[in-house]
Amino acid sequence: MTMQAPTFTQPLQSVVALEGSAATFEAQVSGNPVPEVSWFRDGQVLTAAALPGAQISFSEGRAVLRIPAVTVAHSGRFSVRATNGAGQATSTAELLVTAETAPPSFIQRLENMTVRQGSQVRLDVRVTGIPTPVVKFYREGAEIQSSADFQIVQDGDLYSLLIAEAFPEDSGTYSVNASNSSGRATSTAELLVQGEEVAVPAKKTKTIVSTSDISQTHQARVPKVEAHFGSSAMMEIQIEGGIDFQHLAHKAPPRIPSKPTSKSPTPLAVVSKVATTRQQSPSPVRHVKAPTATPVK
Predict the structure, then answer these.
(1) Strand pairing of 76-84 and 36-41?
(2) Burial letters for 164-193: b for 16+ Cβ neighbours within 10 Å, e otherwise?
(3) Rounded distance, CA 166 to CA 198, Å?
(4) Residue 230 exposed, middle or buried by CB count within 10 Å (0-12, 13-18, 19+)
(5) Cα–Cα–Cα angle for 83, 89, 94, rounded to 5 degrees
(6) Domain 4-98 superfamily per CATH
(7) What's the angle, vertex CA 151, arms to CA 110 and CA 13, rounded to 5?
(8) Domain residues of the chain, as ranges?
(9) Does residue 36 contact residue 16 with C-beta atoms inside 8 Å?
(10) pTM here?
């Protein structure tokens, strides 16, 4: 297998502890082969004689140093060093022991978020307190354990919940609970993860406009109108504006005979008809006797 130098995936975090309480340093380290771990205080190797009662452990890449009951004399700089054949790495943090106490207080609270499915989500809070509060994240009242999908990280007083890839089922109410010997504080917010929307193609529609509708459209321009009449007449109308029209069938207009004018001669057919229907007798002739001539004397 390929050798890999040690790397701290979760470095040490500074601790503020109340005098007489326990103080714990934790770090997560990776490397191949598995590195060896050593602890230091103010640059000196930490031994059981130098720090009586201290508990040191290293398992599955997790290095822990726990001091059951701290005093002001324990304040200082603590370091952990990881070493293997490929290299080494060091992480350092401060321990402050105080007689004062302060309940947890959120400097930065959770905020409502709306994200798209598949997005990375980061929920941040900043919290202070003496001694250093224990901070836990919850979803719908259930505590969230750090994992590949939900990672909890700390950087000083900044605590973050990282969701590598959010899905709609991750939506819900998230809360952070910070507690110490002096009190407790909670911050709550809503996370909404929206699923992917399936695009529905728009249906194409065809509008059929009748001639009565055309007369009511005042804004339509009619640049070209063609009408052809015949025994099987069709009328085609083209109108700008992207409206399709169907061919509308029309009956051929009736033929109306023209009225004869007064100047037009009477048709021969009419004259012959009149001649055949009106056969009158010749006009009667009166026979009148001529006067008789009177002789002259």
Answers:
(1) antiparallel
(2) eebeeebbeebbbbbbbeeeebebeeebeb
(3) 18
(4) exposed
(5) 120
(6) Immunoglobulins (2.60.40.10)
(7) 80
(8) 4-98, 102-194, 211-249
(9) no
(10) 0.53
From first to last of the 297 residues of the chain, give the pLDDT tens digit: 688 999 999 999 999 888 888 999 999 999 999 999 999 999 999 877 778 889 999 999 999 999 999 998 899 999 999 999 999 999 999 999 988 888 999 999 999 999 999 999 999 999 999 888 999 999 999 999 988 899 999 988 999 999 999 999 999 999 999 999 889 999 999 999 998 765 555 555 544 444 455 445 444 444 444 444 444 444 444 444 444 444 444 444 555 555 555 444 444 444 334 344 444 444 444 444 445 555 554
User: The CATH number of 102-194 is which of 3.30.365.10, 3.40.50.880, 2.60.40.10, 1.10.260.40?
Assistant: 2.60.40.10
Residue labelled with tokens 């080494």: 88
Which amino acid is present at 263?
K
**In angstroms, rounded to a whole number, what is the distance separating the alpha carbons of residues 80 and 90?**
6
Q: Which helix (H) or strand (E) holds 215?
A: helix 211-216
Distance (Å, whole) CA 92 – CA 42: 10
Taking a C-beta distance cutoff of 8 angstroms, is the pair 113, 174 a contact?
A: no
Tokens of 57: 């452990």
3-state DSSP call for residue 228? strand
Residue corresponding to tokens 């103010």: 42
Element (H, E) at 178: strand 172-180
